[in-house]
Each structure stands twice: as structure tokens, then as C-alpha cells.
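2024-03-11 09:14:02 DEBUG pipeline.ingest accepted 1 chain
2024-03-11 09:14:02 DEBUG pipeline.ingest length=375
2024-03-11 09:14:03 DEBUG pipeline.predict start
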Amino acid sequence: MKCRFSGVALSLVAVMLAGCSVLPESKKIEYKSAGKAPSLEIPPDLSQLAKDDRFLVPDIAGKGSATFSAYAADRTPQAQSQNTAILPQVDKVRVERSGNQRWLVVGMPADKLWDTVKDFWQETGFIVSIERPEAGVMETDWAENRAKIADDIIRNTLGKLLDSLYSSGERDKFRTRFEPGAEPGTTDIFISHRGMEEVYTSSAKDETRWQPRPPDVELEAEMLRRLMVRLGTEEKRAEVSIAAAKVEPRARLASANDGSGTLEVSERFDRAWRRVGLALDRIGFTVEDRDRSRGLYFVRYVDPDAGMNKKPDSLLSKLAFWKGSEPVANSRTQYRIYIRDGGAGSVVQVLSSEGGADRSETARRILGLLQQQLQ
């Protein structure tokens, strides 16, 4: 990622900053919101790790010394069963994964998790701009990952005096969705990423504009890992859980008997419902309403550029768990994403505003976008 500089500052420091370099790939994260954020605390995963004492010879019975024979005796299954388990048998937080999507299953109701998750985003450097507890949706504002900006001698020397003149040319925001878990008393937590990048619009490189960039699946995974640690999971266990092997693709395009396009998902309805919701978030659709009992999402597409300068869409407040009636019609194009039980799996279809099968090319493109996200 090449370093960028803002406005008039470019002409003032162009010569000094000629050494701006390309930053290597890294998982380092140091977000800074454009707004005023609360005081940051050190995230738990950045704290000093506890010493690994697996290879220390135990002090048997507090005698101050140990022999090999005593050590061997202490390692027998009988002795080990009396010792404290290294890892708990049942996790309060675990990772579920299907294709390139991951989410957390937490053994607590959503209302008990809300404040902790909000604190997590603030500690990570974001401002939470949308909170809809009744809808189970939390969204951050746009922020820049300052860790993507390369250090050079000028930046290191002048520090904060010049730091504001640097920019990575990228902005990120995250949406957190809370869904009731399949098991009573549990909550499924989904994190979806939206990205924008600043690109030059002239050969002279004197004008730029912001445009969307693809969702970063690995960045979503890293945020899930950090949230696991924030919720009490030991860091090494969190890393192993997030890095679990990928599964085979679980969605394919097909056609219905009436000629309309469909998407066949190799998941039972309850899981397909959640995965489609996350896919819609990633693609950039705003869910205006939903009716799970009928398997319907009522959505419209929002230009990502609008979120950089405008206030969040108030229609998000309509998204609530108990909603069952159709949303009030509006002048903008609205799509209905229909999910039904298909026996061994589920079937996803785009419906017209009247409720019939949508056979348009737009409907097929929507299914294609969903299929990419549901692999």
C-alpha cells in the first residue's frame, strides 16, 4: 500500500517524503477513526502472554526439588486426571464455519453481550455509529488502519507533528450482527467488513475519488479472533479455532422449473438464513425488513460512497426480530430474497415486488453475488 498525503500538505512536504515505501503484508492493526473516540485501552490480545510452563519439571508436593521418577509418576493418566485441565472441556465461545464465512457462537444472550462488543470496537479504534439492539445490529464508522502506513525517517523523527499528513488511502468499517443461536441461551455473532479505497482519477494524480473494494474475509477472521479473546478465550485456542480448515463449496447456481434462477445451499434453513444475512451485509445491501417465518429478506442496494459523507440510513431501524408484516413500499427499488427449506439443503430465490419469481438479469446477478459469498 502506497503512502498518501492530504491536500496542501502534499506540496509542502513532497521532497521530504520521497522515501515513502510499500508496506509488506501484515496482520498488524492500528485503527484510527476520523471522529473523536473514547480513550483507548490495550486490547487483551496485545497484553503480555503468560509464560508457557509445559516444559518445566513440576515441584512435587512443594518440596522445592524434583526427580525424574517423580516427574514421570506425575504424568500418568491417573495423576493427570487429578490436575487442573489445560483447556476447558466446554467453551463459552466457539467458531462455526461454512465455506469462507465464520461466526462465533457464544453461550450468552445478546443483551448480555452488547456492551462488551461495543467496548471491543471502541478499544480497537472505531466509533460505533449505529446501534440497534432490538434489531441485533451494530455498525462502526469509517476508520483507517494506520498500521498500513510505512515508517520512514521523517515520520519517526517528527512524530505526531507530521503524522496526520500520512494516509493509507483505505478506509474500513464493520457491521456486527447478533442472531439468536440454534441452542437456547446462545447467540451467533457475525462480523462483516466493508472497504473503500482512494484512487486517482487523472493522469496528473491531482484528483482522487473513493470507490468500494472487496470485503476482506481474512480481516473479518482477525476481528473474530480478537473478539474471542475479548470474550475470555485463551489466545492460542482462538488462533486454532479461526484457522480451522476450509470446507468444500456449499452453494451452486441452478434453475427452477419456471425458468427463474435459484441458488442451492447445502445448509439447513436456520443456518442458511444466517449465512444469507451475512452475505447481504458483505455485498452492500441494506436489509429494510425481514420475516424469518416466511423466509424473506426485504433489501435494497446502497451506494457505499453515501456512507462516507451521509448519515446512516434510518430504515435500518425497521430490522427487528419480531417483524412479520411487509415493509411500507417506497420509490426506490426493493428486492425480496426468499429462502426455503429444500430437503437436504435450502433454496435461495429473488422475488419481484409482487411476490412472484423474478426472472430478470438483475435477479440472476444478485444470486451470483450471493453465491460468491456463500462458497
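2024-03-11 09:14:41 DEBUG pipeline.report The first strand starts at residue 4 and ends at 5.
2024-03-11 09:14:41 DEBUG pipeline.predict end
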